[in-house]
Amino acid sequence: MTNIATLVRSADLAMFDLDGTVLESMPTHNIAIEHFVEDDPLLNGLPHKEVIKRAIHSNAVRTAWEQHLSGIMPYEEAIRKYEEQFLEAEKRLPVKVYWGSKHVLEHLSEQGKHIAAVTGMAPRILACALGALQIHGINRAMFDVIVNDDGRPVKPNPEAYDRLIADLQPERRIRRAVMFGDTMTDAKFAAAVRKRGIATDFVYLYGTRPDRAIREQSTIAFPNMLSMYGAMMQGR
């Protein structure tokens, strides 16, 4: 059976998702999704608006736009409107950091791992998320942030990994990596990095509703960051 302590110890690079992995942000997103669809006259009248809500919830705004909204509003407008709804929702229900996230990131940093957040967050939502990390005592200097490039989703495209590696010091060779995430997109990103010739493990943080298909793609799984940190410290 895979040992998380050994897995982390052997990795040179630790990558992690933000929404639903490090950040308890989905309740805020849920409010934003509801208002994004219900408050917009173009969207509220659509017969398949519930499908749009589920698409945004599962795959973020870009995929929902590609599948359902491209003929209704420009992508940049959809992002702007969703950002506004999220920031309003965040005033009522601030984004929180999951228990254990700070300890895991600090542990990785102390072990000398290169750490990177790989996220598809829109710019103003990302700024909000980074602010929440700072408020909860997580030093922004501990990790890089890899975001969408040229309008393309950052995950599961392996180009995000290429950009990260290009910015590392030449003498810092990456032989093994680990990706922490909670979605199939995160699992697919780990697989894409693996195809670059880098041994890459996927650690699934499944929360309260584990998905069997995602679990099958993972090296090891934990309900949350706190339980994973406990296993790291106990060497199991």
Task: Describe this structure as you would to a colleague.
With 236 residues, the chain is an alpha/beta fold. It has two domains: 4-25 and 95-233, Rossmann fold; 27-92. Helices cover 50% and strands 14% of the residues. The protein is built from eleven helices and eight strands. The chain has helices at 4-10, 26-38, 41-44, 49-69, 75-92, 101-110, 123-135, 159-166, 184-194, 212-216, 225-233; strands at 13-16, 23-24, 96-97, 114-118, 144-146, 176-181, 199-205, 220-222. The strands form two sheets. A six-stranded parallel sheet has the order 5-4-1-6-7-8, sandwiched between helices. It has a two-stranded antiparallel ribbon with strand order 2-3. The radius of gyration is 18 Å and the shape is globular.
List the helices and strands and how they pair.
Elements: H1 4-10, E1 13-16, E2 23-24, H2 26-38, H3 41-44, H4 49-69, H5 75-92, E3 96-97, H6 101-110, E4 114-118, H7 123-135, E5 144-146, H8 159-166, E6 176-181, H9 184-194, E7 199-205, H10 212-216, E8 220-222, H11 225-233
Parallel strand pairs: 1-4, 1-6, 4-5, 6-7, 7-8
Antiparallel strand pairs: 2-3
Keywords:
two-stranded antiparallel sheet, 2 domains, Rossmann fold, 8 strands, alpha/beta, six-stranded parallel β-sheet, single chain, 236 residues
Give the number of domains.
Answer: 2
| Beta-strand percent range | 5-15%
Largest sheet: 6 strands, parallel
Q: What is the count of DSSP helices, taking H or I runs of 4+ residues? A: 11
Can you tell me the overall shape? globular
C-alpha-based Rg, rounded: 18 Å
By CATH's scheme, which homologous superfamily of the largest domain applies? HAD superfamily/HAD-like
